Amino acid sequence: MTVATLPDVASDTAAAPSPRCLAREVIALPGGGTLEYDYFDASPATMERLTDVLFKEHWRDIVVGPCIEGAVFEIRFEKAPKVTFLDGYLTVDLGYWHFHLCTGIHRQAPTPEVARQRQVSKVAFFLQRGQRCGGGRSWGLRMWNGAGEQMTTVFLPNPYLTDEMKVSKTPDWNRLALWHKLREIFLGEPAPADLAAHYSQEPHESLHH
């Protein structure tokens, strides 16, 4: 993938641009299925708004962690985390464990190149189809740093899974409310008024391939 141009230091306090999709990418997955990415602005202002929505407002609803071939970290929150920000780094702290994400301008890096490598340079919504996990689909967001490395994946509520992460016999499309709320905020895409009606013609994904 091509790494997006990073914002300069002046954008540290700049307002986020108007919400829109910067690019769309569809990737054919080995073994079948597709991965669809909708990229949007990754400026510090946008990342601040995004992480506030995810970790302050909807911490109960998300699953967080790196997701690469051969390793998936699925972290859920039992209580609201303490969310702080210092020198470009967001810290999400549960007391006995925490994680950091460089979402803004990192001024104390040893070199400007290291600062650019550490900071989020790309962020995208993803929809994965045709895989066995998640009832056949996954909805979420993914972030990459300036070196093109994945920083983390955020899995959003899945209509094929219950809160207990069990596969549902019948998809609950209302569980996509957060997906559409975020797309409206960051892509400018109006959310359907009635999710069940909007998805009523969707085929049920099979776990058997």
> Stretches where pLDDT falls below 50 for ≥5 residues?
1-10
- Class inferred from helices and paired strands: alpha+beta
Strand order of the largest sheet: 1-2-9-10-11-3
Give the overall form: globular
N-to-C SSE string, H for helix and E for strand: EEHEEEEEEHEEEHH
The average pLDDT score comes to: 88
**Computed Rg:** 17 Å
- In whole angstroms, the N-to-C terminal distance is 28 Å
Into which percentage range does the β-strand content fall? 25-35%
Q: Could you estimate the helical fraction of the residues in percent?
A: 10-25%
Total number of beta strands: 11
Indicate the multimeric state: single chain
Query: How would a textbook summarize the main sheet?
Result: 6 strands, antiparallel
How large is the count of helical segments?
4
What's this, in brief?
The protein has 4 helices and 11 strands; from the N terminus they run E-E-H-E-E-E-E-E-E-H-E-E-E-H-H.
